[in-house]
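#onboarding

Welcome to the new folks! Below is a worked example of what a typical request in this channel looks like: someone posts a single protein sequence, and someone else replies with the predicted structure as tokens. Don't worry about understanding the tokens yet, we'll cover that in week two.

Example request:
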Amino acid sequence: MKVAGLDLCRCCLTSIGIGARLGIETVKERAIYITESDMKRLRPLVDGKGNGRDDLTVLQAELDRAYVVAPTAVPPDVITMNSQAKLRDLDTGEEMVYRLVFPEQADVEQGKVSVMAPIGTAMLGYRVGDEFQWEVPAGKVRLKVEEVLYQPEAAGDFHL
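Example response:
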């Protein structure tokens, strides 16, 4: 399935520390923040289910290195679960907006991307100004987080 010119089904993802075999690189090592409540919901998605699945291995690595913070302590420019963010393709200038959601809420046509999808895992914990490269079948896509349009924690919506 294609959204904003990106193939969401066949691309591969890598995070620093996982290795080049998966295809995503950050421009620099970064701290990522995950709220306590998001971590409680994300851990069961990956614990014991990896079995060699690269997508879960990458998500597991992101969770393992994240700073877990109270919802009131997460910086407002961080992409958390249920956040909506504007990304920009650094090569084409194309802008895209995605909401990062749990798998059962995913609907790519509505811009709701699962955290278990490669781009969803890549978005988790990034901040405004962060850049990353995403390997798709046609080559590398370089993306930058331009703006966090909505973050539940910043809006006081701690129930999401």
